[in-house]
Amino acid sequence: MTDIMSVLAASYRSGSLSAAPSKTKYVAVDPKLYQGTWTGKYANNKSFTISITDVSGFHAKVRYQSEDTVKFQEVLIKDRAFRIGDSKFTLTASGKAQIKNVVTDAATGSTFLDTAFATQEK
Question: What DSSP designation does 25 have?
Fold first, then answer.
């Protein structure tokens, strides 16, 4: 149990996805910019898929899958971005997004930030 807790604590403390808190308010987004299936690959050639559905106002339902990892979550979109688990999705342009994922090495407990780009399937 201690090993699991130390890994979780290290991930939480790393703050790799942290930034200064935004002072902007939540505002409704254009569902067409986000809704649909997004695909991409990390530098290690692992592919991922992000499915965004039910975009309403600044709320959405998101499913992230990369190999054996599957996450499903309702998210809030703010400043063109949202988080799902330890991953952050940022819309960079119409049909293009940047994905940042905090990865923890199970053997050492060290963390690093894996960055990739995704495109929206039409």
Answer: P
